[in-house]
Amino acid sequence: xxxxxxxxxxxxxxxxxxxxxxxxxxxxxxxxxxxxxxxxxxxxxxxxxxxxxxxxxxxxxxxxxxxxxxxxxxxxxxxxxxxxxxxxxxxxxxxxxxxxxxxxxxxxxxxxxxxxxxxxxxxxxxxxxxxxxxxxxxxxxxxxxxxxxxxxxxxxxxxxxxxxxxxxxxxxxxxxxxxxxxxxxxxxxxxxxxxxxxxxxxxxxxxxxxxxxxxxxxxxxxxxxxxxxxxxxxxxxxxxxxxxxxxxxxxxxxxxxxxxxxxxxxxxxxxxxxxxxxxxxxxxxxxxxxxxxxxxxxxxxxxxxxxxxxx
Length: 311
Ligand code: CP
Ligand code: NVA
Known about the structure:
The protein is α/β, with parallel strands linked by helices. It is 45% helix and 14% strand. Strands 7-6-5-8-9 form a 5-stranded parallel beta sheet. α2 (58-69) crosses α12 (291-310) and α5 (135-149) crosses α6. The longest helix is centred in the last third of the chain and has 20 residues, at 291-310. The protein is globular, with a radius of gyration of 19 Å. The structure holds phosphoric acid mono(formamide)ester and norvaline. The site of phosphoric acid mono(formamide)ester has 8 residues, from α2.
């Protein structure tokens, strides 16, 4: 059974299969109560364990509802409430859980924890965000882009802000889905250059600049994320957060940056957002923003992911 660890770990055929399933399921169940199952209940009798070592609103609720709608069930575990918090190894936890459940979703600080879990588990493991990447979010973002603007292949997307875990997943997606990605980040918060190198070797068109307006020029979509990610909070402390704010201020997505993009360019943000920091209220609450569709599509995209992993 395959893992969903990162966009780069899957080929375009598998990623497209997931999105096609997501889109079809979303269409088929339109109008049904949220608690009603999809007609085919493909995960009937299956259980997903959800491990959260970090806070979450969207990932937590969308995975839970996704499993219910596919006919399955979930068990939620927070790192501190389990023996993981008292030093039981990740590998031992993976072996034990593999005897109880059919798949494991984990949100963790260290990408190496996800890798260790996936290595030792005999059931599929899904990446619900690590310090390195957030592939489930980008699947939702591609679904959202294509619902609003048609095929993403050949389009230009601008990433403006921190070169963080979301940026990494966007870079991997550019390689797999064939769109051009221009990243505008402060030099100190540049994206992971190993991922950029990998994506370019795959034939992706990736540009890196420190000029946010130039990155947004003629883009079909402008995406950003928080200035201080969950991992930065624990690692950096308050003064480092202030330093990040200072570095990222010129990268705030505002009307000037959106005006550089195409007239009907989409604005995307994985949420949670901080109005007045990475994006102005005018932009995130304005007509080009598709942030609520992105959030809802987490549910639909993850149904495609779970179904692909488990059936
Ligand atoms: N976008 C996202 O993953 O949100 P949560 O942190 O609320 O899960
Ligand atoms: N980059 C953010 C994404 C939150 C969904 C973080 O890691 O906190």
